Amino acid sequence: MIPTEPIGSIPRPLALLQAIASYQAGDLAPETLDEAYADALRDTIDRLEKTGSPILTDGEQTKSSFATYPLTGLHNLAPDGVVIPFADGHQRQLPRLTAGPFRYGIHAGQFLKTARSYTQRPLKQAVISASALSLLYPATEIPGYSREAFLADLLN
């Protein structure tokens, strides 16, 4: 046995992917989507417990994206931000901050709190780095909201 501890994303089950697509198409109620997220989270934790891993993760089943989950609910963003290329050839595009101040829409600890309801085993949570989120600030300064003020808000 090789001692391991998973961290980060675990592929979402087909039922959750279908529920997300149905919700985005307007064919599924928010409550039903929440149930699909809960089922996927419960299943992920159950399967990880069965591996014997000493520390579990939620597999990021309920995050909108590993890179942009803290931005959930923010309205001062545009979709045309920096593109982050990955070594395997895929890429993620971040949104662009359009106005200040910057505030987190959700914190990673909230996901941990939800996962805690499904296990008493030790849990850890993958978080996006502040350095990656610093790329939200555009190349041209936002009037009345300096890069320095943004970085202070990001770190606070």
Describe the structure.
The chain has 156 residues and is mainly alpha-helical. Helix content is 35%, strand content 6%. The strands form 2 sheets. Strands 1-4 form a two-stranded antiparallel sheet. A two-stranded antiparallel sheet has the order 2-3. Helix 1 packs antiparallel against helix 2. The chain is globular, with a radius of gyration of 18 Å.
Key traits:
about 160 residues, mainly alpha, 5 helices
Detail the poorly predicted runs.
none
Distance between the termini: 42 Å
Tally of DSSP helical segments: 5
Radius of gyration based on Cα positions: 18 Å
Shape: globular
Order of helices and strands: HHEEEEHHH
Largest sheet: 2 strands, antiparallel
**Main sheet strand line-up:** 1-4
Query: How confident is the prediction overall: mean pLDDT?
Result: 93
Structural class: mainly alpha
Percent range of helical residues: 25-40%
